[in-house]
UniProtKB/TrEMBL annotation:
Protein name: proline dehydrogenase
GO biological process: L-proline catabolic process to L-glutamate
Keywords: FAD, Flavoprotein, Nucleotide-binding, Oxidoreductase, Proline metabolism
Origin organism lineage: Bacteria, Bacillati, Actinomycetota, Actinomycetes, Propionibacteriales
Keyword Ribonucleoprotein carried by entry: no
Known catalytic reactions: L-proline + a quinone = (S)-1-pyrroline-5-carboxylate + a quinol + H(+)
Length: 308
């Protein structure tokens, strides 16, 4: 119930307006979002890469209905890619893009505009020697996002996809995407979804995650195991061994600020570990999804709101 309320707040414009007046340096925000501009993102990436980790950077923002805002997001990614390259980080850093941040939700033109915008970002990533992964948003966007992915992969086959184990359709999507050259990030899913589309019980979601892992690890693609869950990480490791997958033929992914010691431990064992680093001013939706996963942080969050 609490998770559902927080996820409802994540999409409520009035609550968003209130919360966004908090300075980003407030403890709870800073824990998950290292900063607001490209420079802060590059500094965070540098620190993680120096610790033996890889990164994927997300310029925060979503659900835009303004083509100029979508355009500004594209420019932010181009600037980021240029600066990552200048800092010598492009080999270890890719970018994650939400199609709704580059125009997908715009009536009528959304599919075409977001495809063209994503294509521009993919081209810039390719030019500096790195890749793009398309984040996955709520279930109403899954078909459109996978269609955009198919289009992008014609020119940029290295483009990564995200699938969410909480959706009932995902095991089938994993089968469809477990082919050679395909990069698939498997996560549990962070959105408020109806029971018709998603498993609601955590145990069911975990079972689905394991079924999807089995498909991806047995397949020909490159699985990206995105979870902080120790059981899922252990099962992924066992499946990788069972299928004779060497370290580097798959990777683990976690969010910035969550289980940093585990990130380093896995990397120390020779595993490839990538940290998802969100940055920018539009941190509200992202932060609320993190709070929904960890309601124990709510007290801390409420305190930062009151003391602003
Ligand atoms: P949970 O069920 O939340 O947690 C399981 C266990 O993990 C906990 O019991 C605990 O032991 C440990 N754990 C979890 N959080 C913490 C914490 N804060 N501190 C300490 N231990 C903790 N979702 C999408 O819908 N679309 C995306 O595109 C997307 N991209 C993602 C990219 C990456 C790299 C990652 C890691 C996640 C992404 N997510 C995305 C979010 C994801 O769907 C989950 O909401 C989120 O990862 C929490 O699920 P979990 O697998 O960590 O397990």
């Amino acid at each position: 119930m609490l998770r559902q309320t927080i996820l409802w707040m994540a999409r409520n414009q009035r609550v968003k307006h209130l919360v966004e007046t908090m300075p980003v340096s407030s403890g709870i925000v800073r824990r998950y979002v290292p900063g607001e501009d490209t420079q802060a993102a590059v500094v965070a990436a540098r620190g993680l890469v120096d610790d033996g980790l890889h990164v994927t950077l997300d310029h925060l923002g979503e659900d835009t209905l303004d083509p100029e805002q979508a355009d500004a997001t594209v420019k932010a990614y181009l600037d980021l890619l240029e600066q990552l390259s200048a800092a010598g980080l492009a080999r270890n850093a890719e970018v994650s893009v939400k199609l709704s941040a580059v125009g997908q939700a715009l009536p009528e033109v959304g599919a075409k505009l977001s495809l063209e915008n994503a294509r521009t970002i993919c081209r810039a990533a390719r030019n500096v020697g790195t890749t793009v992964t398309l984040d996955m948003e709520d279930h109403t966007t899954t078909d459109q996002t996978l269609a955009t992915l198919r289009e992008l992969r014609k020119d940029f086959p290295e483009t990564g996809a995200v699938l969410q184990a909480m959706l009932r359709r995902t095991e089938a999507d994993c089968r469809a995407l477990a082919y050679e050259g395909s990069r698939v990030r498997l996560c549990k899913g962070a959105y408020l979804e109806p029971e018709s589309a998603a498993f609601e019980d955590g145990v069911e979601v975990d079972r689905s995650y394991v079924r999807c892992l089995k498909v991806l690890m047995a397949g020909q693609g490159y699985p990206m195991v995105a979870t902080h869950d120790p059981r899922m990480i252990a099962i992924a490791g066992a499946l990788a061994t069972r299928h004779g997958r060497a370290p580097g033929s798959h990777e683990y992914q976690m969010l910035f600020g969550i289980r940093p010691e585990e990130q380093k431990r896995l990397a120390g064992q020779g595993e490839k570990v990538r940290v998802y680093v969100p940055y920018g001013q539009e941190w509200y939706g992202y932060l609320m999804r993190r709070l929904a996963e960890r309601p124990s942080n709510l007290t801390f969050f409420a305190r930062s709101l009151i003391s602003k």
